[in-house]
Amino acid sequence: MKIFITGTSGYIGGMLADRFDENPEVEKIIALDMKAPSNLAIRLLSSNRIAFVQHNLGDPGWEEKVLAEGRPDLVIHCAYVIREGYGKKRAWQIKSNVTAAERVFDFVSKNKIPRLIHFSTVASYGALPENSTNYKFKESDSFREEKYLYGVDKKIIEEKLKAAFYAFSATQVLVFRPCAITGPRGQFAFKRFGLLRAMKFGLPVVPVTGPDSARQFVHEDDIWDAVRFMAGGGASSKYEIFNIAPADFFLLKDMAKEIGKLSIRVPMRLGKLCFGALWHLSRGRIPTVPAGINSYTYPIIVDGSKITNYGFKYQYTGREALKADRGYYSRFVDK
């Protein structure tokens, strides 16, 4: 089997390339990213079964380089610039995300790739005031995000994906909508700055801007297992969407206790002001985009049980994912 994975210098794409390289049934992995792999991506740099292509998916030319290694049997599209661009960077981000996805979908269609796994997000359901931890979003629920560009762009990309493949394509399309992914690789190897890292390793206290402020976490090993499960034919239908999330979640005040921090209630207006000030003063280097206060305040809790109906089982709870002391990468990272 030949696999083409996008975004392999990133957290999830790199992990998938790493783990698939262990599988003797995988003949070749074509790994693509706009950035060269870091020293964390040991197999990307040394494996003779991995061919790395450095290219922006939004630009033409990568298709020929990928096909030079042979037509893939499976495409896994993980590449995405998550951090919202500041000022003129927005145009570049659209090219790197939306245009890139269109080119990937076109590549899959033209070359009649048998299977596509596309990574989307639960953020597109929309962080709105009417949300409650009493309701878990299902795959059939509509996307409602209109402000937070991560959720907006992922919504647009899913619409384009459905238009390209839903009705008549021979390609099996599997859409993954994970909640926040974490684990030992994410917390101790990549150390990417974000909400979890700020709370766990930065802020002395955890600010809470809403009574239902909550987070849901899935372990990185469960993401790998879900991809491996579906890559091996875990679903038979042509177009399926899966929320990827264990059953448990944290209210932020309880998450603070879990990581040994105090929590403090902060008015949302003050939180929004702080988000905006940090965003503009740092010119986007601190990823507190103003619209992000909604996703910080209003919960998006999803029902991730659909995939279990196909025989998949989560190994870890959200609490175990947050703790990040168990899993494949726990033996390789310095804590």
From TrEMBL:
<feature type="domain" description="NAD-dependent epimerase/dehydratase">
    <location>
        <begin position="3"/>
        <end position="245"/>
    </location>
</feature>
<dbReference type="InterPro" id="IPR036291">
    <property type="entry name" value="NAD(P)-bd_dom_sf"/>
</dbReference>
<comment type="similarity">
    <text>Belongs to the NAD(P)-dependent epimerase/dehydratase family.</text>
</comment>
<protein>
    <recommendedName>
        <fullName>NAD-dependent epimerase/dehydratase domain-containing protein</fullName>
    </recommendedName>
</protein>
<dbReference type="InterPro" id="IPR001509">
    <property type="entry name" value="Epimerase_deHydtase"/>
</dbReference>
<dbReference type="Pfam" id="PF01370">
    <property type="entry name" value="Epimerase"/>
</dbReference>
